Amino acid sequence: MMRDLKFLKLFYGLMLVMVSAAFVSCVDDNDDTEAPFLEVSPTTLIFGLNGQPADGSQASFDIKANRSWKAIIEEDKSWVTLSKTEGEGSATIQVSIPENINDVATVVIQMSNKVGVLMSKTVTIKSGETVTPTVIYSETVGSAAAAGNPAVADYTGWDDKVVTYSGTNASVRASQSNAGGYPTASGPNNIFFAGAPAEFVISKIAIPEQNTNLKLTFGSIYVKDYDAKDYTFDMSKFEVYLSADGTAWAPVTYTKDNGDAEKPNWIFATSNFTLKQPVSSLYIKFRALDSSKFRVDDITLSTGNGGDEIDLGAAGDPKVTTTDAAAITESTATLGGSVANIELSDVTEVGIQHILFSTGTVTSIDWTKATKTAATVKESPWTVAVSGLTKDAQYAFRAYTTTATTTIYGEPKTFVAMTSTATQISIAGLVEKMTATSTAVDKDYEIRGIICGDPAGLNYSYGTLFVMTKGATTAGNALSLYNNQIDVTQYKLGQEIKVTLQKDVVKIYKRYDVPQVEGFSAANIEVLSESNTVTPIKVTVSQLASFVCMPVTIDNATIAESGVWKDPGALKNQSFTAGGTAFTVNFNKSATTFDNKPFAAGTGSITGIASIFSGAGQLMPRNLNDVSAFNSTSPTITNISPENHTFPAAGGSQEFDVTVANQGSNTLSVSGLSNAFTANVSGNKITVIAKENTGSSAISETMKVSLTNGNSEDVKLTISAKSTGGDTKGTFTSMTPFLFSEGVNNYSAYGQLVNTDIYCLKLGVGASSGSFTTGALKVSGSKKLSFYAATWKGKTSKVSIKVNNGGSVSGNTSIEPVANDGATGNAPYTIVFSDNTDYYTFNLTGLTESSTITIATDDSFGTTAVTNSNARAIMCGFQLY
After folding, report:
1. What is the rounded average pLDDT of the residues 695-707?
2. Same domain, 505 and 547
3. Rounded CA gap, 178 and 185, in Å?
4. Which intervals hold domain DUF5689 (predicted)?
5. Is residue 647 a contact partner of residue 718, using CB atoms and an 8 Å limit?
């Protein structure tokens, strides 16, 4: 799909042109002004014997095209009825069939122009006995709310502990609940995709023998624009792949429902597919191409009725990709390709073939008559410059790779030999056109400039290229190109590029005062030259904002304390001063180049791209060379994981991993602990053993971790107090394990953080109530249940309590907590509880060892959520005494 999209965007021009040769047809001047484009989705529809779509399938397919098309049903398959059999442009085609059909039919979508068929796609329609799905694998990301946003590889609360989980920039979160979004929505946890491209991989799902017809379902949400409450799901930015070995991946398509249209805005996605060959185990990969916007949950793989054929056996085969034509003129063009799944040492030659092409389809071309041109350098990707083309003629071309035994070809593409009609405009001129409002460009433009940021340094929002006018030394001569579907690490600092901006497609504006261009694709960027000199401009702090997007240097910059530039996975701002004025040096959370890299306090020159945040100028170093004046050679502790730890009253042990830079022969040591803790150091690993705390107060101490000839870092250690069994006013400790570890989320109930370190129970989400049932209390007789509670800001709520499996509530069975301004937004919440108004006690009688307690924000205690906008409450500090 993406290949076709690039195909369309690049070859925006005349498709068929007039030439005098007899084998070239003529078309009207205004016809076929774009390259042919055809997409059909889905490509397989499955119906049961009742004539209705099978579970997870649908009764329609979508056509996206820019020509007239016809839908041709295979002969002798008159049982298939289409709502439309021809048309022009995009359309949705409804498919209907009668009952009791056990057969397979194909529908061919042909797109044509005056000289014949240009492209075709096939839709397969299957009808017959359907199977009842049998679950092979299911994952709800755990029932107990995850604390601390652990990386997927570190999370231990998975439902399925047989498979393995890994990821890149993916973590488990207990926010953005999907409760009520679709029938199997589990809440509270989900997988959050941070800096794009972010990936979540499920490995080694055992597949029962000979099961090739499978169905994959999952829930997902795309927070396209939080402020505008836009959750329109973009399937092109959330990809799903399958693999038999975790190395070679094949993409899989999916459909979605309309859950993004209403709260909680989670969609339910389904993919029906058929494996070409049986596999013993399956790997699933989810890939997000937009940073911090996507989540996924409730992943289920089951047997199904089949669908699109997936050839995992070929997923790892060598594959050649033909790249889009570039630098097209009336007589020349730059063509090229790339190869995957093969070592270049096994390749003998790479290059392209091109041939004059006017009629028929690219599949009918006689490539033996094509001109073959080898690339001068055996590399991937490669380019070849072709010349001697005929003005206004259309050509087909394809990339190739030759090995000792075979030649592998990429898919054919086409272009027209014609000079671009885009208007050249300077970067400064384009910036002058920008306002605070996003506006489409009024004509086709072409800009040229030097990449002045360092894509390899990663200190930018994913998909950003900083480009400046060649040799510019004055402000207003740079901008940012932004497309988060482009991996900009394919470009380099110092490259000169040409960018084509298409009228009514590309948009320009000053986003928070930063000049930005959006709406282009990689096909619109052409590299003209390499290794151009980029000289940073010396500026003062007061000039930073005016030189936005340009490389600048501030001399005599001072930082007071040494440290590390940034911690892994986190944004970091460092405070500098120059000339008596403070300024911020910013490191994006994805800038792994600077992770745990120590620096020394001192004064020197610092370089980077000038940026703006909240109206103030900032500096974003491009690479480690930009901050070399502050290099540290001293032994330095750069990270301790975890940063602190709280032990239960019974004590226990905990390992701490210490990361050190420039360690040499220097060793770690610990100090500052009493006999309540014992610490053992083995290399860069520290094991702390905490004794039992029999007192009524928590024991807290600070362990100082020191490095010989280096620095030291503090780690806070705490042993929780033993419960006194009495009134718990003023106690906000976690309710675990009394409630949550063995409890059940009936609906819209999950754990969250209050004040960053207190675990709480949140009931209700959006306009739905919540309910939670504890595990067995394992006590008997009469007890009191006390806790703190608050209602959602500006709302009212009623919290009801009941006892199950023996026992009852004596007296009041419900409360109406006071609304709290801190109970709003997302966790962690900042809430100040009052002992006088927010502390509640219930009297429980006749309890047994198996008694449980249900807490709900609807007094019906039903099995499903009740719609009620006044049904959200937060509770913590639970104690039974």
Report:
1. 89
2. no
3. 6
4. 423-627
5. yes
DSSP secondary structure letters along 596-645: T-EE--EEEEEEEEEEEETTEEEEE--SGGGGGGGB--S-EEEEEESSEE
pLDDT at 718: 84
Report yes or no: 428 and 477 within 8 Å, Cβ to Cβ.
yes
pLDDT at 734: 45
Q: How many independent structural domains does the chain possess?
A: 7
Which contiguous run of DSSP H or E holds residue 433? Answer: helix 427-433
For position 807, which CATH number holds?
Answer: 2.60.120.260
**Residue range 525-568, pLDDT digits in tens:** 989 899 999 999 999 999 999 999 999 999 999 999 999 999 87
Residue 68: name the closest of 13, 115, 106, 1 by CA.
115
Within 13 Å of residue 599, how many CA atoms lie on the same side as its CB? Answer: 25
CB 748 within 8 A of CB 754: no
Query: Does residue 649 lie within any of the structural domains?
Result: yes
Phi, psi (rounded to 5 degrees) for 201 = -120, 130
Q: Which residues of 251-263 are buried (b: 16+ CB within 10 A; e: fewer)?
A: ebbbbbeebbeee
For residue 24, pLDDT over 60 is answered with no
Shared domain check, 273 and 139: yes
**Residue 365 identity:** I
For β-strands 514-518 and 478-482, DSSP reports them as parallel
Residues 523 and 546 in one domain: no
The sign of the dihedral angle between the CA atoms of 455, 461, 464, 468 is: negative
Tokens of 106: 């194909």
Are 628 and 659 contained in the same domain? no
Q: Are residues 94 and 233 in the same domain?
A: no
pTM, rounded to two decimals:
0.46
What are the angstrom distances between the C-alpha of 709 and each of 596, 635, 665?
18, 7, 10
Q: In the listed set 127, 151, 174, which residue is the last one of a domain according to the structure?
A: 127
Domain carrying residue 504: 423-529
Provide the 8-state DSSP code for 184: T
Cα–Cα dist 424/205, whole Å: 54
For the stretch 512-535, pLDDT in tens is 899 999 988 887 898 989 999 999
Residue 161 and residue 295 in one domain: yes
